[in-house]
TrEMBL record:
Residues 431-441 have a biased composition (Polar residues). SUPFAM superfamilies: RING/U-box. The keyword Metal-binding applies. Residues 333-372 form the RING-type domain. Residues 405-451 are annotated as: Disordered. This is E3 ubiquitin-protein ligase RNF139. It is found in: Endoplasmic reticulum membrane. InterPro entries: HRD1_E3_ubiq-ligases (IPR050731), TRC8_N_dom (IPR025754), Znf_RING (IPR001841), Znf_RING/FYVE/PHD (IPR013083). Keywords: Endoplasmic reticulum, Membrane, Metal-binding, Transmembrane, Transmembrane helix, Zinc, Zinc-finger.
């Protein structure tokens, strides 16, 4: 839920205005201080010694008792969330200052952590449990919360890491804090899961914590790998054509693993719901998880993959200039202003670019960056000629999506039949032109919609 900024911002604002957290915090802290004083007094009476200090065991009991009674009702759980909010807020600010990030959006840790804590408490029915069970449940929730906070911190460090490596800043003092935090983000989850596995038998909770930890470690590895790639690129200072590919592969591997973890966590949640504790809140959370972490991620990943594939296809259809002709044109790439070292791609409008630069451009736009003519000339010409032969009349296209699907089918058919389709070329050609014309209008319609 916290990824929808619009609603969240509204809630956050209202939340701040009524100063509800402050009231809760004061209430909770006052209550706990009062309880601590009373308990201390009782302990002193019971032990009958004059010493001011109490023993370590007594102290530990006292803390446990305070924590148990600190979450014995929904109201006290809210108070506890408010206290967690302050801690998380200052922790977040501290880390942001340490890594030198100015991202406003990343200040939300003070909001995200308590909300997560509260949802976890509701989901596990924390306040309704028996005292001794409550302490165990609370510590388990805290472990989950800790891993979630670490994931959030990774989200804060990743952009800083990327901008540092991409901007080729070479000062050690700028890099060290981010690398240090990244190292901590790797070591902490390893330590946490090691300790937990040492003390507990496997159950759904331990499984969830471990999965979160492993996922975090993998995310850190992906970030650091991309960082290293960019640093190597910056160090050698020549255009590294394959860099973009490598970064893409590393990132998509990371995303695929994250997606798999999302599915596994969903399975774990479903198991918990069926065999351990099924509640409406858990069901809601699982729906949210399925939507954000599984559905949206798969959708975005697929979209990126398709964009990339289309762009590569377009580039490959353009003539490649190499060797002596490359020296003849003696030009620079109009996108990055670097010289052509090995090869250049020529657009139908006679402009030259690096294949890599042009590909990045084609993710966003279909036209030449210099003159805004269509880059993907082959099919456009056919479509245009078709339109001309119809005296410029374009049949109104009622079902745009249908046309796109047909075109996609035709596209794949063509890819399959590319080698052996000479005898029925003419028939196919006319059919294809019809489809392409449809696609042309459909694309225009889409463009209008998106504009
Ligand atoms: Zn270039
Ligand atoms: Zn051009």
């Amino acid at each position: 839920m916290y990824r929808i900024y619009g609603l969240q911002l509204l809630m956050e604002d209202t939340w701040k205005r009524i100063r509800f957290p402050d009231i809760l915090r004061v209430f909770w802290l006052t209550r706990i201080t009062a309880q601590a004083t009373v308990l201390m007094y009782i302990l002193r009476m019971a032990s009958e010694t004059d010493s001011f200090f109490i023993s370590w065991d007594d102290f530990w009991d006292l803390i446990c008792n305070l924590i148990i009674s600190g979450c014995d009702s929904t109201l006290t759980v809210l108070g506890m969330s408010a206290v967690i909010s302050s801690i998380a807020h200052y922790l977040g600010l501290g880390i942001l200052a340490f890594i030198g990030s100015t991202e406003e959006d990343d200040r939300r840790l003070g909001f995200v952590a308590p909300v997560l804590f509260f949802i976890l408490a509701l989901q596990t029915g924390l306040s309704g449990l028996r005292p001794e069970e409550r302490l165990i449940r609370l510590s388990r929730n805290m472990c989950l919360l800790l891993t979630a906070v670490l994931h959030f911190i990774h989200g804060m460090t990743d952009p800083v890491l990327m901008s540092l490596s991409a901007s080729h800043v070479s000062s050690f003092r700028r890099h060290f804090p981010v690398l240090f935090v990244s190292a901590c983000l790797f070591i902490l989850p390893v330590l946490l899961s090691y300790v937990l596995w040492h003390h507990y038998a496997l159950n759904t909770w331990l499984f969830a914590v471990t999965a979160f930890c492993v996922e975090l470690c993998l995310k850190v590895i992906v970030s650091l790998t991309v960082y290293t790639l960019f640093m190597i690129d910056g160090y050698y200072n020549v255009l590294w054509e394959k860099l973009d590919d490598y970064v893409y592969y590393v990132r998509s591997t990371g995303n695929i693993i994250e997606f798999i973890f999302g599915v596994v966590m969903f399975g774990n949640g479903a198991y918990t719901m069926m065999f351990e504790s099924g509640s409406k809140i858990r069901a809601c959370m699982m729906c949210l998880h399925a939507y954000f972490n599984i559905y949206l991620q798969a959708k975005n990943g697929w979209k990126t993959f398709m964009n990339r594939r289309t762009a590569v296809k377009k580039i490959n259809s353009l003539p490649e200039i190499k060797g002596s002709r490359l020296q003849e044109i003696d030009d620079v790439c109009a996108i990055c202003y670097h010289e052509f070292t090995t090869s250049a791609r020529m657009t139908p409008c006679n402009h030259y670019f690096h294949a890599l630069c042009l590909r990045k451009w084609l993710y966003i736009q279909d036209t030449c960056p210099m003159c805004h003519q269509k880059v993907y000339i082959e099919d456009d010409i056919k479509a245009n000629s078709n339109v001309r032969s119809n005296n410029g009349f374009i049949a109104p296209n009622e079902n745009a999506e249908e046309a796109v699907r047909e075109a996609a089918a035709a596209e794949s058919d063509r890819a399959l039949n590319e080698d052996d389709s000479t005898d029925c070329e003419d028939d196919v050609q006319t059919e294809r032109n019809g489809v392409i014309q449809n696609t042309g209008t459909a694309a225009e319609e889409f463009n209008e919609d998106t504009d």
